[in-house]
Amino acid sequence: MPGYYTHFYFSNMLIEQLPYAARSVIDLYPDAYRLGSLGFDILRPMGRLRAELDYKHIYGLFEKTSKYIFESGSKSQLAYMLGELTHYMLDSRMNPYIYYILEKGVPVYFGEERDFLTIEQIRDSIDIHIEKRLLNDKFYITEMRPEPEMVSDIAEMFEKAVSEIVGYKVRGAIVESCMLSIKAPKLKPYELARYDYMNRQKKEWEPVRNDDWKTDMSVEELFEKLLPVVNKTIDNYMSSVRSGDTLDKNWFFINYLGILSQDKE
To answer: Do 169 and 50 meet the contact criterion of CB atoms below 8 Å apart?
Structure first.
C-alpha cells in the first residue's frame, strides 16, 4: 500500500546497514533490487496473483524462492527477492498506519468534523511528502532502465517457483512486460499543509490491526525502528539461500496488510 517513492526511500535507507554479502549482491544488480522493492504492485494486469501473494502465501513465497535461488545461483533473482523482502516488511508495518487513518476516519484521527479521505489520497500524500522532502525530487523510477536479460531471469523465477506456490501457471512474459514498462506514478495528494500525514504530532494508532496495542510513532520513527528488523530478516534469507536450509517461519507471521498470515505452508 505505501507508494513507490516510500518503498524506494526505505529500501535505500537499508542498503548501508546490510552485511557485506547482501550489499555486494545489490551492488551487482541495483535495478533488480529496486524492482523488488516495488513489490507486486507493478504487476497490475495480474490481480489474482498479487492478491494471493500479498495475503496468503507470505512464508511460502520466501521459502520457495530461497530454495529456487539456491539451485539456480542467480544473483539477479537474489537481488530482486532482497528488494521484495524490504517491500513486504514495510507494507506489513505501515499498512496498519494507513488503514488506521482510513478506518477511524478524519473526524477521529485529524479532529475534523466534515471531511473524507480515500486510501489513495492517504498513500499519495505520504508518498509525495517523501518524494519531495526526503528524496529531494530525485525521480528514481524514471531513471530505472532494467536490462531485458536481467528481467527475463527474474520472470523465469516467477514462472517456475512462484507457479508452484500459487498452484497455477504464472506467465513469465506478462511479468517481464510489467517490469520493463514501469512509469512514475501520477500522485494525487490531498491537503498536505492541512493534515499531518507523517504523524509528527504523535497521535496514537494501532501498529497491529485489530489489536489493543497502540503507538504514537511518526512515519520516520517507524522507518528507523524497522530497519534492524529488516536487516535480520534479510540475513536469515541470505543464510537460507547459501545453505539450502529451511527458512525460519517466525519472521513471516503477518501478511502484507499487517494481519496474521493465513499461510499454512
So the answer is: no
Residue with cell 499498512: 95
Cell 530505472 -> residue: 144
**Burial per residue of 172-187, b for 16 or more beta-carbon CB atoms within 10 angstroms, e otherwise:** bebbbebbbebeebeb
* 261 neighbors 255 (Cβ within 8 angstroms): yes
Instruction: Give the whole-angstrom CA distance, residue 15 versus residue 19.
Output: 9
How confident is the chain (265 residues) per 10-residue block, as mean pLDDT?
Answer: 90 91 96 94 89 86 97 98 96 89 72 76 92 67 80 98 95 95 84 88 81 87 95 95 93 80 55
46 Cβ neighbours under 8 A, 6+ residues apart: 40, 170, 174, 175, 178
The three-point CA angle 119-124-129 to 5° equals 135
Residue 111 CA to residue 114 CA, distance in Å, equals 9
First and final C-alpha spacing in the chain: 24
Express the helix, strand and coil content of the chain in percent, nearest 5 each.
65, 0, 35
| CA–CA distance, 260 with 55 (Å, rounded to integer) | 9
DSSP 15-78: HTTS-HHHHHHHHH-HHHHHHHHTGGGG-TT-HHHHHHHHHT-HHHHHHHHHHHHHHH--HHHH
